[in-house]
């Protein structure tokens, strides 16, 4: 009889132990979301992209100006930079570019069907030609068309001829390292893009 009671006691202890383990595991399972919830605010990162590329470009320059104690805020002209970024958008996405091969390179008729696109072409294309003339051994020139600009880019070196033709209009326009520095200069009121765009 005593042996039976001992067996019952052992069985009861096993049940209690098993129940305790199950509850502990269940408790851990239910606690997991709480731990995740507690760490979520620390794991959440602030987005790095501003959501719009022109906005981000201006934001980056504002941070640079803010960080520079020598910034002369009386000369800063962020509206000029904003207008230039609009020009870039118009020329990149809305301008028509009809290229034909000429001896030594390319001739490209860059035209726009809307007034805003035409203004952007008239400012950007001559400015680029003026800045890039002589770079890479290129001869770059722009002349006025009734609805745009005629861009001519040539070189004496046959490798550069192929380079020019391979780049095409938009590849040429993004060539050179002048864009970012003149964005900063423009924002600081040190660059007259409108005047340069009339140099043809």
Give your account of this protein's structure:
With 200 residues, the chain is of the alpha+beta class. The protein has two domains: 44 residues; 145 residues, no CATH class. Helix content is 60%, strand content 15%. Strands 1-2-4-3 form a four-stranded antiparallel beta sheet, covered by helices on one side. The longest helix is centred in the first third of the chain and has 42 residues. It starts with a helix and ends with a helix. The N terminus and C terminus are likely disordered.
Structural class estimated from helices and strands = alpha+beta
> Based on CA inertia axes, which overall geometry fits?
elongated
Tally of helical runs: 7
Number-wise, the strands total 4
Main sheet, how many strands, which sense, barrel?
4 strands, antiparallel
Q: Whole-number radius of gyration?
A: 33 Å
Order of helices and strands: HHHEEHEEHHH
End-to-end C-alpha gap = 116 Å
- What level of helicity do the residues show? 55-70%
Low-pLDDT stretches are 1-5, 7-37, 193-200
Q: Provide the β-strand percentage band.
A: 15-25%
Could you tell me the mean pLDDT? 81
Feature tags:
200 residues; alpha+beta; 2 domains; four-stranded antiparallel sheet; 7 helices; 4 strands; elongated; disordered N terminus; disordered C terminus
């Amino acid at each position: 009889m005593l042996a039976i009671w001992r067996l019952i006691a052992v069985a009861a202890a096993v049940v209690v132990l098993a129940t305790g383990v199950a509850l502990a595991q269940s408790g851990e399972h239910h606690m997991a979301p709480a731990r995740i919830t507690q760490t979520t605010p620390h794991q959440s990162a602030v987005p790095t992209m501003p959501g719009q590329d022109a906005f981000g470009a201006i934001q980056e320059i504002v941070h640079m100006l803010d960080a520079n104690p020598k910034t002369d805020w009386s000369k800063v002209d962020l509206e000029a930079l904003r207008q230039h970024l609009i020009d870039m958008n118009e020329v990149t996405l809305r301008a028509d570019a009809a290229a034909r091969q000429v001896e030594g390179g390319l001739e490209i008729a860059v035209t726009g069907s809307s007034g805003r696109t035409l203004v952007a072409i008239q400012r950007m294309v001559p400015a680029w030609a003026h800045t890039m003339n002589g770079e890479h051994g290129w001869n770059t020139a722009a002349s006025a068309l009734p609805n745009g600009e005629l861009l001519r880019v040539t070189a004496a070196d046959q490798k550069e001829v192929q380079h020019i033709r391979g780049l095409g209009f938009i590849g040429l326009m993004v060539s050179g390292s002048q864009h970012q520095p003149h964005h900063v200069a423009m924002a600081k009121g040190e660059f007259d893009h409108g005047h340069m765009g009339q140099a043809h």
